[in-house]
Design a protein that fits this description.
Blueprint lengths: L2 H16 L11 E7 L5 E2 L5 E3 L2 E3 L2 E3 L6 E3 L6 H7 L5 E7 L9 E7 L7 E3 L2 E2 L7 E5 L1 H7 L7 H13 L11 E3 L1 H4 L2 E6 L2 E6 L10 H18 L37
Parallel strand pairs: 5-12, 6-11
Antiparallel strand pairs: 1-2, 1-14, 3-4, 3-9, 6-12, 7-8, 8-11, 9-10, 13-14
Helix pairs in contact: 3-4
Length: 265
């Protein structure tokens, strides 16, 4: 996505927020938000997101994830090399837990300069940075990484062992981001009903009395975004073997006759 298009979408989102003031509540205090879908998962209802300036359209909030788990980028190794110079970054390969039936590897990247990585959610640059990045490695990504010259031999051996251990199986590539504790722990979050909001950890108390109004307002903001997001209710936790009853999760906006104030008062 071009920078002009991202800016346009960001401005559009900002206009939506300004248009949804309710009783003088300052909705600009909310820096990101997620909505529950029919799979009972909380996803960002926007495709205007990025991590370390890599764009992602599918992000699920997962408090059980220790970091922010990223799909290997489109463009593969070339994108990694272009954005993360080996002279300025450290690369490690390790096994991951909870990334599916096959415990795939992850490529962990940290800056040698102690610089964090930016994160943009709902078109808003967040006031915190991520201390490290973790890219999920499926079969294809691991095979590609095995050929680079900037990983030491021990890391390559780990990749080779992982690929060999699969035999005829294939470790699928991750399709969406897990937004976990390396972001969540730096923010204040509030969850109620079908909405989750994130605020500045240092200043959220200034708005504590208005939290119910804030969440209700963002419910109104999110509703048309969810409706426009094609396939939002089909987004699933890729690590989870979904049960059939999860298709029947009832959402607060299912009935036009029900007032949202009933849920948030």
């Amino acid at each position: 996505m071009s920078s002009n298009k991202r800016n346009a979408e960001s401005e559009k989102g900002g206009a939506a927020k300004r248009a949804h003031f309710r009783d003088g509540v300052d909705v600009t205090s909310v820096l990101a938000f997620a909505s529950r879908n029919r799979k009972n998962r909380y996803f960002i209802p926007s495709k205007n997101n990025s991590v370390a300036e890599i764009c992602y359209g599918k992000l699920m909030v997962d408090s059980g994830c220790s970091g922010v788990l990223l799909p290997f980028p489109d463009g593969g190794v070339q994108v990694i090399e272009r954005k993360f110079s080996p002279t300025r970054h450290e690369f490690t390969v390790s096994s991951s837990k909870g990334t599916g039936a096959i415990h795939s590897l992850v490529l962990k990247i940290k800056s040698k300069m102690s610089q964090g990585f930016s994160i943009v959610l709902n078109g808003e640059l967040q006031p915190v940075s991520l201390p490290f990045l973790c890219f999920h490695l499926g079969s294809s990504a691991a095979t590609e990484l095995e050929q680079v010259d900037w990983l030491d031999q021990n890391r390559k051996n780990e990749l080779h062992s992982f690929i060999q251990s699969l035999n005829a199986l294939e470790a699928m590539e991750r399709q969406h981001v897990l937004v976990g504790q390396s972001y969540i722990s730096q923010m204040f979050s509030a969850q109620l009903g079908d909405m989750m909001i994130f605020m500045n950890k240092d200043t959220w108390t200034n708005y504590a009395a208005n939290l119910p109004d804030l969440i209700a307002t963002f419910h109104d903001i999110a509703r048309p975004m969810v409706e426009r997001y094609d396939g939002f209710h089909d987004l699933e936790d890729e690590d989870h073997d979904a049960g059939g009853d999860e298709e029947d999760v009832r959402l607060s906006w299912d009935s036009d006759e029900e007032c949202i104030d009933e849920l948030y008062t």
